[in-house]
Design a protein that fits this description.
The chain is an alpha+beta fold. The chain contains 21 helices and 15 strands. Helix 20 runs antiparallel to helix 21. The protein is elongated. About 35% of the residues are buried. Keywords: ATP-binding, Kinase, Nucleotide-binding, Transferase.
Length: about 600
């Protein structure tokens, strides 16, 4: 492949095969990733492979595997990358479990540093997992496999209906087809820290469907319940990173680096060996890595298949891609020679067509093209500079005369007016602006409460709409389904609706023990129960006064008109039978009727 002679197979995956290669010009070793010709004709796979090359060209960081060059050999796309001396984090988790929380934090800090550079370049990795993190022999971290990375806001290159990523470490918004931002990588890093400490990911299941169901509706067991002797700050950080709502996570990889650095500055008296609690589970087996690490300078890079029980779930496959996920570990014989589709075919072609470009050559070519373009268009550049100067003058003038962003007091007064007028939805943007720009303002807590109230109203409107269109039970959590059933029951039986709401709160509540939509649903249930209790109490009070008046009237006429008094007594008994609030009146009516009939 280009200047490289393929030596041994390192691993295989849905995006091709990785070989250990030797540069015949220099003798340098590299990892060669090849997309075979039978896959190169698939436009989706070809575009993803080229996207990976383009992504790696932009990245240059000590914690990201380096790209050496790329090219095409007889229709087969390939690129050469750094061959790391060490092993994958997946193997570390299972074979030599990490004993110190500081090691976990240090690894996470190096991963976050690599992600920070990727995010600053506008790139989301989207598949951070143990098998995609390499630990070198000098205990440094390298991130690899940017094959499914995506630029912020770019259109996808996956096939229709496909979700790319690894279920055990995938952020909820990525799993359910919502917009993916850098915070998806931060969720995955939180899941990775969880796995390093607990030796299992936050959610486990026998199928992707089961894992996704848990990802949507369940909360992971708190890490400090699975692992003893963890600093509280570390437990809280992992919990925050695993929040289902991206807005509640650490905002950026840069901010996460600062949090992790602060943890490493904790006093040494917090250092204890990690111990799993008794109820922790063993990490199950899973498929092999796409890229294993070499075991030594000249040793075969693959591991004993019996030792490759990795702490990760299968990669989710794209529709129509065979072999893109669950891969069987290679046997010893298969691990020491390249497949015949690569090596033997190469030998049969006397005149192979090769294209290979090193990273340095690509950058030099780009620089030369830019230089020629600049020299040939000097006069255009002058005009452009002149136009830019004019535009800059206009912008500066506009900035001088344009109103500045409103201050905290002005924004708060707008919010307060909207709340007083009952128009919270109209000041939603102002609330977001205030909470983002003035988080330390003492009034931010009140603004946050107003924002949560608006979220509650919007969620209640969604429930009403779901009930109105007859989709109350589609894709909803059981808590939400019970709440909607209670609301429907209230239309014809308020007492039964009250009993349902009381049961719902007793089983799943109180609301402050849940999160997200479930917590808001329980808040709505608590409010509606309070309203129902008040309404039923008011109604029973009015009925009590009215029935008391009729009983007193029956008592007055019992001697003169016993038949009419008897009808009133019997009517009261019939009305109040089974009503707990009217027990006293019921007893009195029964006693009066008995005395009347005994005369």
């Amino acid at each position: 492949m280009g200047p490289y002679r393929l030596d041994t197979t390192i691993g295989s995956g849905g995006m091709g095969t990785v070989y250990r290669g030797i540069d015949e010009r220099t003798g340098d070793k590299a990892a060669i990733k090849v997309l075979p010709s039978n896959m190169s004709h698939n436009e989706g796979l070809r575009e993803r492979f080229q996207r990976e090359i383009e992504t790696l060209l932009q990245l240059k960081h000590p914690n990201i595997v380096r790209l050496f060059g790329f090219g095409e050999e007889d229709g087969e796309l390939f690129y050469a990358m750094e061959l790391v001396d060490g092993r994958s984090l997946a193997e570390v988790i299972v074979k030599t479990p990490i004993k110190s929380w500081r090691t976990v934090v240090r690894y996470a800090l190096e991963i976050a540093a690599g992600l920070r550079q990727a995010h600053d370049m506008g790139i989301v990795h989207r598949d951070i997992k143990p098998a995609n993190v390499l630990i070198t022999r000098d205990d440094k971290v390298k991130i690899l496999d940017f094959g499914i990375a995506r630029l912020f806001g770019a259109t996808g290159v996956t096939m229709a209906g496909g979700i790319v990523g690894t279920a055990d470490y995938m952020a909820p918004e990525q799993a359910f087809g919502e917009g993916v931002t850098p915070k998806a990588d931060l969720y995955s890093l939180g899941a990775l820290m969880y796995a390093m400490l607990a030796r299992q990911p936050p959610f486990r299941g026998n199928s992707v469907t089961e894992i996704l169901d848990k990802l949507r509706y369940n909360e992971p067991i708190p890490i400090d319940r699975l692992v003893e002797t963890l600093p509280n700050d570390l437990s809280q950080l992992i919990t925050q990173l695993l929040d289902k709502n991206p807005e509640n996570r650490v905002p950026t990889a840069r901010a996460l680096c600062r949090r992790l650095e602060a943890l490493l500055e904790l006093p040494e008296d917090t250092d204890f060996d990690l111990h799993l609690a008794d109820h922790s589970t063993k990490a199950p087996s899973a498929p092999g890595d796409e890229y294993q690490l070499k075991d030594g300078e000249d040793d075969a890079p693959t591991l004993d298949p019996q030792a490759r029980k990795l702490a990760e779930a299968p990669t989710m496959q794209l529709p129509g891609e065979e072999g893109s996920g669950n891969l069987k570990p290679k046997s010893g014989d298969e691990a020491t020679q390249a497949p015949a589709t690569i090596v033997s075919q190469r030998a049969k072609k006397p005149e192979s067509q090769t294209r290979f470009t090193t990273v340095a050559e690509q950058r030099q070519r780009t620089s030369e093209e830019e230089s020629r373009r600049e020299k040939s268009t000097v006069w255009i550049n002058y005009l452009q500079i002149g136009g830019l100067l004019v535009a800059l003058g206009v912008v500066v003038t506009a900035m001088l005369i344009a109103p500045q962003k409103p201050g905290a007091d002005q924004v708060y007064h707008s919010i307060e007016y909207g709340a007083t007028e009952g128009n919270l939805a109209e000041v939603s943007d102002e609330m977001d602006d205030f909470l983002e720009r003035f988080p330390e303002d003492p009034r931010s807590e009140y603004v946050a409460q107003l924002k949560e109230e608006l979220n509650l109203r919007r969620q209640e409107n969604r429930y009403r709409l779901a009930a109105a269109i007859g989709r109350a039970n589609q894709g909803m959590h059981p808590v939400e389904q019970i709440y909607l059933d209670a609301m429907k029951t209230n239309e014809f039986d308020p007492e039964a609706a009250r009993d349902k709401l009381q049961g719902l709160i007793l089983v799943y509540g109180p609301s402050d023990t849940q999160q997200g939509d479930i917590a808001r649903c329980l808040v709505l249930a608590e409010r509606r129960l309070k309203q129902l209790n008040s309404s039923l109490a008011s109604r029973s009070k009015q009925q009590t006064i009215s029935i008391r008046e009729r009983l007193d009237y029956a008592n007055q006429i019992a001697s003169d008109d016993p038949d009419k008094a008897e009808r009133i007594y019997r009517g009261v008994i019939q009305l109040l039978e089974g009503e707990s609030w009217g027990a006293n009146l019921l007893s009195e009516a029964q006693l009066r009727l008995k005395n009347l009939m005994s005369r």
